[in-house]
């Protein structure tokens, strides 16, 4: 054994200190003690019967949260982006047409992902803060004849809650699968996967669910599975191959589960607990609470003289609010001031909304009038103390 | 808002109970309280300065653990399989030749992954429990002229610790990158990434590191980065695109970090802590302890009349021991008996070793003579009480 030439780093000798902070940006949100504690349970095997039981509870919780009876419902071992790639990698083969609705950064990223695996990608773009009409969508479907249409339901970069009704039927009329990103909306605004004809739906653990980032619920309709399981080519990723994942999660007819990957068991614990919290409150109650708190927040913002970025009320995401960046101010100074002075995260824009907005996320147990008051007070304070140029 | 048609599942009403269990299979291993508690710290932002500081400590810890000065050292937000795909997706373009050393399941999976992205894959196969000689490797390199050669250092399916010396030089002689899987070996057996000319090295958090599964340390040499950053095509995965990951982890020259994905911050906390534990003990001490404990274990197994699957002493993995499945017994009955009676996980074979072996992992803080005694006692008991057919 030769001696090591690189010594142990000094920085690991110090104790790690993590601050408590109000997480009122677009995510991750604060994790309540019940969920954090669940994640601190001892590690057992990724193939132990107790783990399979917890995974089965997660499946039921996802079916409830998504309002679906799809048996192919499970959690990807990764973040929202992993689920996004899981959806696209499995449903699309090289050379196939994909249509992407772009109303913010998520559409841009979905288009990039589909291009990387050799799809022919067309986009329809909504103006920032706006959304696509069903007529526009139908026109594009009929023109491009895609196998998959992507849409972000909760566009956290622009604060838009995209209408979903009728789009599933349009997709199916043109023989296309309907893929919806509900990372920022699920649990905070109504989604009915089966009724709305959504074929693939995914979200993340770190928004309304209030679990740490690292797992991503996803569900595939029978129609989607038909396409996936009749592919001519293998999906580019073994790790995200639906046939393996469905087996690991007990969603197929095989008598035995085969070792695929080592599931992040402690992340499963916290995801399970976060789904239990949502089931305890009830979906409708959670939707209603987010809506009420959002309206209370929006009124408060307007009384501070601030403007909402999304004009149309029904298209405002109740979980993440976009505020027109106050004229004359540097948005970075505002978010830094609020972080420093109030120990509270709010954020600037992202992708197409960069420089245009401030974003405030009140998700899951963070969504309360008391927290709204805290954010409004912080904003009032920032507008008073940050530099203002004459405009 | 229409009413929901799928009610909240009853199974989420029960309290989740996770048992304590001796995790002496090939992983995940037990997580000590210090590391579990680190992971229960509050969630902060994936782009907050405190998170960047923790990520920077993780980088230093990985450089130490891997014995490398590579600045492109970081943790993938996923499990070992994710890191494996990260390595292959970034270094290989469609149509390029890849050579895979197969001495167990990991080579088989690496070959599958490379094929999925359109590489031309050749394999050289070692008999189960054996390894490849440098002469065999050179012959294959010279014949196939691959851009990448894959080898598993710690083959957890067969219990082989593959010799590494000299192979890096051979690869470079033929203009090929050397990719090594050290998921099951790192921290438990010597690896010197820079000295041994390894170009890409990755591991998982859930073995010797004793952190929960969900993060995977990886490092790329300058030579590997040269190839990756001069690709003609984009890697198939946005989530695993090295140029994005290197930026998120502060490994590039760009002045600013751009939002890529939401890092699993609590998993970063536990990974950081596990690296601190390793640095506290010191690599050489950890290697020595694993080696001593393994030899003590192997002697004990032989005195029970059991046979080791790997004949050559120096090729035995000190972290995961493969025992020839006791003749006349059903291996499944043995592992089930030990789980039920002793609350202790040991496992059967995997891939090419399925049905041939029992596997016992004593990794990180699980590697102690006291735990060896516990496993030996459980095995002795099982051999006495399980059914034996006349052979």
TrEMBL record, chains A, B:
Signal peptide positions (record): none
Per its UniProt record, what Gene3D superfamilies does this chain match? Aspartate Aminotransferase, domain 1, Type I PLP-dependent aspartate aminotransferase-like (Major domain)
**A GO cellular component entry from the record:** peroxisome
Give one GO biological process term.
glycine biosynthetic process, by transamination of glyoxylate
What does this protein need as cofactor? Answer: pyridoxal 5'-phosphate
Q: What class of enzyme is it?
A: transferase
Organism per entry: Cyprinodon variegatus (Sheepshead minnow)
Q: Which residues form the Aminotransferase class V domain?
A: 22-361
Entry's PANTHER family?
ALANINE--GLYOXYLATE AMINOTRANSFERASE, AMINOTRANSFERASE CLASS V
**Subunit organization:** Homodimer.
Q: Record's CDD domains?
A: AGAT_like
Q: Which residues bind substrate?
A: 359
Q: Which reaction does it catalyse?
A: glyoxylate + L-alanine = glycine + pyruvate; L-serine + pyruvate = 3-hydroxypyruvate + L-alanine
Protein origin, superkingdom? Eukaryota
What's the name of the protein? Alanine--glyoxylate aminotransferase
The catalytic activity of this protein is classed by the Enzyme Commission as 2.6.1.44, 2.6.1.51
Q: Which UniProt keywords apply?
A: Aminotransferase, Pyridoxal phosphate, Transferase
**Modified sites of kind N6-(pyridoxal phosphate)lysine:** 207
InterPro entries in the cross-refs: Aminotrans_V_dom (IPR000192), Aminotrans_V_PyrdxlP_BS (IPR020578), PyrdxlP-dep_Trfase (IPR015424), PyrdxlP-dep_Trfase_major (IPR015421), PyrdxlP-dep_Trfase_small (IPR015422), SP_NH2Trfase/AEP_transaminase (IPR024169)
Q: What family is reported?
A: Belongs to the class-V pyridoxal-phosphate-dependent aminotransferase family.
Q: Mind listing the GO molecular function terms for this protein?
A: alanine-glyoxylate transaminase activity; L-serine-pyruvate transaminase activity
């Amino acid at each position: 054994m030769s001696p090591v030439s690189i010594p142990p780093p000094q920085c690991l000798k110090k104790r790690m200190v993590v601050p408590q902070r109000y997480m009122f940006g677009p995510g991750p949100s604060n994790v309540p003690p019940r969920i954090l504690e669940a994640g601190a349970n001892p590690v057992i095997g990724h193939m132990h019967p107790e783990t399979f039981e917890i995974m089965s509870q997660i499946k039921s919780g996802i079916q409830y949260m998504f309002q679906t009876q799809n048996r192919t419902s499970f959690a990807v071992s990764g973040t929202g982006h992993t689920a996004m790639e899981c959806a696209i990698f499995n449903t699309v083969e090289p050379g196939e047409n994909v249509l992407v609705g772009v109303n913010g950064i998520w559409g841009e990223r979905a288009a990039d992902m589909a291009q990387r695996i050799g799809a022919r990608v067309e986009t329809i773009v909504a103006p920032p803060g706006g959304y696509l009409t069903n007529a526009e969508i139908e026109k594009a479907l009929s023109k491009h004849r895609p196998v998959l249409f992507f849409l972000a339901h909760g566009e956290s970069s622009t604060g838009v809650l995209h209408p979903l009704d009728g789009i599933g039927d349009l997709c199916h009329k043109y023989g296309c699968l309907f893929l919806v990103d509900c990372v920022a909306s699920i649990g905070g605004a109504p989604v009915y996967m089966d009724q709305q004809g959504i074929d693939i739906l995914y979200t993340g653990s770190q928004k309304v669910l209030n679990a740490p980032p690292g797992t991503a619920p996803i569900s595939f309709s029978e129609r989607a599975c038909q396409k996936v399981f009749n592919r001519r080519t293998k999906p580019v990723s073994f790790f995200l191959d639906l046939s393996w994942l469905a087996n690991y999660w007990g969603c197929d007819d095989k008598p035995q589960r085969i070792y695929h990957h080592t599931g992040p068991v402690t992340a499963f614990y916290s995801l399970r607990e976060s789904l239990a919290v949502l089931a305890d409150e009830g979906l409708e109650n959670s939707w209603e609470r987010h809506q009420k708190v959002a309206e209370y927040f929006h009124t408060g913002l307007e009384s501070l003289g601030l403007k909402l970025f999304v004009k149309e009320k029904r298209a405002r995401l109740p979980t993440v609010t976009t505020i027109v960046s106050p004229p004359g101010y540097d948005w970075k100074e505002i978010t830094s001031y609020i972080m420093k002075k109030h120990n509270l995260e709010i954020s600037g824009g992202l992708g197409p909304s960069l420089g245009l907005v401030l974003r405030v996320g009140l998700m899951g147990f963070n969504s309360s009038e008391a927290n709204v008051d805290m954010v409004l007070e912080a904003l009032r304070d920032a507008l008073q103390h940050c530099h203002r140029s004459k405009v």
